[in-house]
């Protein structure tokens, strides 16, 4: 059965894996999911990610989750904001801060996906995809 919102599916897979402290999570890959994984890695929320058979119908992405030295969860929460039924857009000056800058908002701009800090720096607004803290 096809997934109607693949980004929500990705975020739910990550949320569920973090809840049970799984070391990795595997899901179907796409360009947008790879861009989100790249942002999560650059901001330190995940250790790494890799793709398998990209460009084929069986393309997969494996995300290696990150935990603290005593097993503390690095990703405390992850929430989808803009969804297919309700798009949420913000101007560059009103891009939200998540937990006063401790988390990040993923923003889809005309220049691609970027974090809330990058969007404010580049003076770019757009669709608020998700919050991660």
Brief descriptors of the model:
133 residues, alpha+beta, five-stranded antiparallel beta sheet, three-stranded antiparallel beta sheet, 3 helices, 24% helix
Description:
Helices cover 24% and strands 30% of the residues. It has helices at 6-19, 31-42, 116-121, and strands at 24-28, 46-52, 60-65, 78-80, 89-90, 104-109, 112-115, 126-132. Strands 4, 5, 6, 7 and 8 form a 5-stranded antiparallel sheet that branches. It has a 3-stranded antiparallel sheet with strand order 1-3-2, covered by helices on one side. A hairpin with a 7-residue loop joins strand 2 and strand 3 (60-65). The longest helix has 14 residues, at 6-19.
Give a short summary of the structure:
The protein has three helices and eight strands.
Please report the number of helical segments.
3
Enumerate the spans where pLDDT stays under 50 for 5 or more consecutive residues.
none
Structural class by helix and strand composition? alpha+beta
Cα-atom radius of gyration: 15 Å
């Amino acid at each position: 059965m096809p997934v109607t919102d693949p980004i929500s599916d990705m975020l739910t897979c990550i949320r569920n894996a973090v809840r049970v402290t799984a070391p990795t999570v595997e899901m179907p890959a796409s360009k947008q999911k790879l861009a989100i994984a790249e942002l999560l890695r650059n901001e330190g929320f995940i250790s790494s990610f890799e793709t398998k058979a990209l460009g084929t119908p069986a393309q997969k992405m494996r995300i290696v989750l990150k935990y603290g030295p005593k097993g503390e969860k690095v990703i405390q929460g992850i929430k989808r904001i803009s969804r297919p039924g309700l798009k949420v857009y913000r101007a560059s000056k009103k891009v939200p801060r998540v937990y006063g800058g401790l988390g990040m908002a993923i923003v889809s701009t005309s220049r691609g996906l970027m974090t809330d800090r990058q969007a404010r720096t580049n003076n770019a607004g757009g669709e608020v995809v998700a919050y991660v803290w």
